[in-house]
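Per reviewer request, we include the raw input and output of the structure prediction for the construct analysed in the revised manuscript.
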Amino acid sequence: MTSPQSDLDLTRQGEEGAASTEYPQLTQLFPPSLVTHRMPAIGQWSPIPALTDRDRWEAVDPDTRDRILETALAWLGRPWPGLPASSFARFARDGDRWGHQEPVFARRARLGHAVLATGLSFGTAGRADAFVDDVMDGVWALCEETTWCWPAHDFRVLGPERGLLADPDHPTLDLGAAGTAVLLALTDVLVGDELDRRDPLIRRRLRREVSTRVLTPYLQRNEWGWYDGSTAKLNNWNPWIHSELLLATALTEESSDRRAALVCRILQGLENYLQAHPRDGGCDEGPHYWWRAGASLFECLETITSLLDTDRGVFDHPLVRAMARYPMATWIGDGWAVNFADGPARPREITPALLHRYGHRTGQPTVSAHARALREHAGGAVWQPGGPFDLRRALDTLLDHEWRAAPPTEFPLPARTWLPDTEVLVSRTQEGSGNGLLVAAKGGHNDESHNHNDVGTFIVAVDNRPLIIDAGVGTYRRETFNEDRYSIWSMTSEYHNVPVVNGFGQLPGRSFRATSVRARHDANTDELTCDMASAYPPQADLESWFRTVRLVRGPDERVEVSDSWRSLAAAPSLDLHLLVGGDLVIRPMGLATVTPPEGRGLLVSWDPLVFTAEAETIPLSDPAFTRVWGPAIGRLVLTARRPYSDGTHVLTAKPLKAPDGA
């Protein structure tokens, strides 16, 4: 991702990406003949130790064990959350998906904790039996659900019929269905024998429901756009669902022929994803979704190589190795990350133990070091649950003895990363240090996965804190993924750090993109240059708009944003926007300060003879925003006094001196 050379012009090669490199395909590394020959029968392989392997289970640290048992005990004897039809129907009626998903997640979290508690307490008279009964109740409750699909994804709700409810005779295979399947599969392999002692019907029904709702639709129907990109962009859904299908196949499918057929189809699906993925390893969905994109791909490869007992050199695959470095490349520090596209600036649903294994398997010590530093940043706990409960990742983390033994370390913090296919540059003042400036800038196009209209935008952080920001994304609703997406303020270019020309912002679509993209660096500077004109509609009358975002190191460290534009006619209006995460105060002489609650702020300067300035407050009420930014963010609006057809301008951002006592 980074180049050790200096004074380089790292220009993007070609309009659609860097020069192509041929990599071995997964279907070549793991052909059908190998899969058929090496695929174990059901019951001969498990990713987790049996209940009777007490040494492995008792190695879980006491604090974590107590926390899990306390949570599981608190649920015992309480009713399971209900799932009335009206809660599912709310998505079709008013766009709300969480009235249904929250009790869905609560049910699965309860079952997952009961499974973990069974493993941790097995052999303890009385207590384990109570947890197994709760497992039985949870399995039966999930099998009784009409659908495992989330309402926002259901084909009947989204299709021409525009139904309120899901059709159980035509199940939709989405993230919710696949996640339920893997939860039940892990329950089967760990607690299945105990369930059989109560009634063999429980396990038989579990396997039948997983097959009917998930494995058979996957094998027999060809309507999954996330599989091949036929009806949707290939994104995190592909590796995320496949990671769960692999375990569900290995742990619940009894037919040898179907086991092999499913694994071969999964391998082709993953190859579809890799073929569509940027060669530089970047994730255009942003670091939040990487944990269900690149991380899930690694889980797929980890499962396949363990299941077939051969890795075939897959962890030396250049793209697989490059993808592992993305979380490290986009880390700002102190819990903040570069959050282009949908995703919070403070990622929450991360699994450092997984990244630690990923770095180890691909032979990249800095990746594993980044994972260990993430653990220390979270307080040093081996396992920190975040977001919807994930039994698979909890088990992998809790039972990983190498992760428990790995010593603490500091974040590697690379000085620069240039992703020529994703068109993202991240640069900091000093390698290995969060002190000083960090800038992230992007080119790209406006049809990226989880897209925002943000060609040419940038983020500036001081001492690990973003102050010129990307606001991120609000709580998902129906409008987030339909034709009304760009009626949401945070998706529009007007609320990113790019110009508004003749009253027009950027438009969505792949043709609205950056051109002439290049990155350059030497010992003292890193910069990204692109022409943003093509990201705007014809009514903006732009012939070109070249922007260079530059980090300058040294005693006068600063970020420079140089704009040079040419219009077909004199523009009636021209505005430059900056979103800021701090107290915004406009000063005399073309200056403004952005001050965070703690630490150093940022001094922003522009030419006051060319632009007037106005500070706006953007109130926030959505918890997805307020948990990151608080009750408000600011927007600095620079308006051209006389918007000529041609012009140049340089905006500069410098760190302020530390406040007294800091």
